[in-house]
Amino acid sequence: MTTISTNLQAVRARIAAAAQLAGRAVEDILLLAVSKTFPPERIREAAQAGQFAFGENYLQESQGKIAALADLGLEWHFIGPLQSNKTRPVAEHFAWVHGVERLKIAERLAEARGAERPPLQVCIQVNVSGEASKSGVSPGETAALAQAVAALPNLQLRGLMAIPEPTDDMPLARQRFALLRELRDALNRSGMALDTLSMGMSHDLEAAILEGATIVRVGTAIFGERT
Fold this sequence. Notes:
This protein has helices spanning 3-22, 40-48, 59-68, 87-93, 103-113, 142-150, 170-189, 205-210, 220-223; strands spanning 30-34, 53-56, 75-78, 96-100, 120-125, 155-161, 196-198, 215-218. The two termini are 24 Å apart. It has a single domain (3-223), classed as Alpha-Beta Barrel (TIM Barrel). It has an eight-stranded parallel beta sheet. By secondary structure, it is of the alpha/beta class. The longest helix has 20 residues, at 3-22. 41% of the residues are buried.
């Protein structure tokens, strides 16, 4: 058994245990393998072990991988900060964008996607920990941005995404993730139909799942430390 296959089994077991503790169906939680900086061969190895959804942060690097692995029919998620001049290739090559934090970016994605393709699935990134260095819209500005993004053509607003500060404090981690869930639920009470919470990574996926994560973004626990 390969290391990546073994690592994937371990991560899936963690997800299943957390889902059971939360009283949730494990099928409702998508494992997104964050493959940034790792070569196509490692991604192919993960795909051979049953992984189909992969997250990339760097556009130039990801384009080569997507082309090299086109035969596998993988689902690609763009999860990094997105600049205006990179919206077109992202809209053309990815199925999901997780980090929308400005209306201008969403408008450019919508224009670049085109009506002839399935809608681009998007999540709004929220800065739930209030760090000045973190990307994301503030919790108080989330509703206005969500309403504007949801009205755009060629996009489907699926939910919210967050990257809280790293912490070993489980109650604090759960508090951050609970805030994202509460924001999503408030939007749904206002008439939206959002089904996605993209939150939780290698070190805190259990806390995220306990608070309702539907996508966990895991890199290090699958592929190892980045150099």
